[in-house]
Amino acid sequence: MPRAPTGDVHALVPLPADVDVRRTVGRLRRGAGDPTWVHDADGTVWHAVRRPTGTATLRLRPVRGGVRVDAWGAGAAQALADAPGLLGALDDPRGFADHLHPAVARARRTYGGVRLARSGDVWDAVVTAVLEQRVVGLDAQASWRRLVAAHGEPAPGPAPARLRVAPPPGAWATLPVWEWRRAGVDAQRSDTVRRAARVAHALSPALDPDELARRLRTVPGIGPWTVAEVTSRALGDPDAVSVGDAHLCHLVGWALTGRRADDAGMLRLLEPWRGHRQRVLVLLELAYRGGMPAYGPRAPRARALV
């Protein structure tokens, strides 16, 4: 077998043996067809990113002792420096009291290898979260897939042909209206992305979650749900709670009390885990996926123009 090519830069990121790399980074992927991610059958994961110095391709290969990370492209050095956060190595679960509820304890026993990943891609997190406002996830994923495939750029290095780097803020800001509609994105969401693009320079991954949240809330069309989605994905915020989600509050209520709950009830139930509320949500979503009664209204389906 030919040797796998070596990146422009590479490193070994040490990780405990029980870390579930595939699920940890998989939570950042927006559907199986996300053009910025490719998962190989052997466990290798490819990811295309944009950094201030340029675009980069990351290849993540689990090896003994951790994950071998290779990076190609002008942004390779920065992408490599961000790799520990991406893999969940910066996640700190100390102080997480899973024993406070048997459902949380069971979920952690089963999915304790899943860490909170920090993508470092604030802008991509903004776009994907806005696309997911008020529509079902499959439609939002399809919109992201179509827009990145059409307007992104090929990932550098020996990446799979279908791997693409998402467009920068300026490109999103100037997309013609028909491109948004063809991808099934309504005016309210596309206008929000354009407004956010004007302040993208101020949305740095170096900010703490509270400050990033404050800046995001200055953009009309971005509210608490979108803020929590961005800080959890981009910064690995362990306490982010997506208030306003059509189904999340019901999942928490059902898992912890056997009854549905509203947002206020969800916040009360999660209060004992303040500081780790996102961690509880991740574990419950993994543990109860497909096993919860279908409470709440179905979000409207977006229609792509042909």
TrEMBL record:
Signal peptide: none annotated. The keyword DNA damage applies. One of its GO terms (biological process) is base-excision repair, AP site formation. One of its GO terms (molecular function) is DNA-3-methyladenine glycosylase activity. GO terms for cellular component: cytoplasm; protein-DNA complex. Keywords: DNA damage, DNA repair. Gene3D superfamilies: Hypothetical protein, domain 2. This is DNA-3-methyladenine glycosylase 2 family protein. It comes from Cellulomonas shaoxiangyii.
